[in-house]
Amino acid sequence: MIKLGVLISGSGSNLQAIIDAIGAGALDAQIAVVISSKPDAYGLKRAQEAGIPTIALTREVYAHPTEADEWIADELAKAGADYVVMAGYMRMVTAPILDAFCDRVVNLHPALLPAFPGAHGIADAFNAGVKVTGITVHFANALYDQGPIIAQRAVEIREDDTLERLEERIHAAEHELYPQVLQLLAQGRVSIQANRRVCIAEL
């Protein structure tokens, strides 16, 4: 079993998917702590209802980003986290967290990286008129949305789609793939090769 430290900023729907997967026995993990960059994030309520320890930060804490991440890294370490899971965390993690959890910070991006990086991946893909987009789970590093890719899943953009419909299908794919990738980590099947490509071992 692995221990997860989950970072959130909003509703926590991916956090809920992880909680549900653990409850269903599909994910051999424990969420050690949930840390939110916003004190009013609904994801905190989800965590509390599941009996998970929470920490709510304020904007003032982030006035000095490096100091904030040093404090967050300390709290994650105190909680015994093996991996840091970014689940709708709207701040870029910096060296204190990345160094303390080297190649153990996992992020979910709502596009097929390296296409459409940044905070508006779904809308950017939709507005670009591409026919296929998707989601990417990757290890975070110092370069925004450029860390080693663990897994991807394609999502078709249909002719009659609206942005809202596409967002719904993207989120549904996230809720399936993210817990599955975390289970690969729990099974010890994920490794990063010398060329920084991710290898997933067969069972």
Précis, in short:
The protein is α/β, with parallel strands linked by helices.
Which secondary structure elements does this structure contain, and how are they paired or packed?
Elements: E1 2-8, H1 13-23, E2 29-36, H2 42-49, E3 54-56, H3 65-78, E4 83-86, H4 95-100, E5 105-109, H5 121-128, E6 132-139, E7 149-156, H6 163-186, E8 190-192, E9 198-200
Parallel strand pairs: 1-2, 1-4, 2-3, 4-5
Antiparallel strand pairs: 5-6, 6-7, 8-9
Descriptive notes:
- The protein is an alpha/beta fold and 203 residues long.
- It has a single domain, classed as 3-Layer(aba) Sandwich (Rossmann fold).
- It is built from 6 helices and 9 strands; from the N terminus they run βαβαβαβαβαββαββ.
- It has a 7-stranded mixed beta sheet. A two-stranded antiparallel sheet has the order 8-9.
- Helix 1 (13-23) packs across helix 6.
- It is globular, with a radius of gyration of 16 Å.
Task: Name the CATH class.
Answer: Alpha Beta
Strand ordering within the main sheet = 3-2-1-4-5-6-7
- The CATH homologous superfamily is named Formyl transferase, N-terminal domain
How does the helix and strand content classify structurally? alpha/beta
Sheet of most strands: 7 strands, mixed
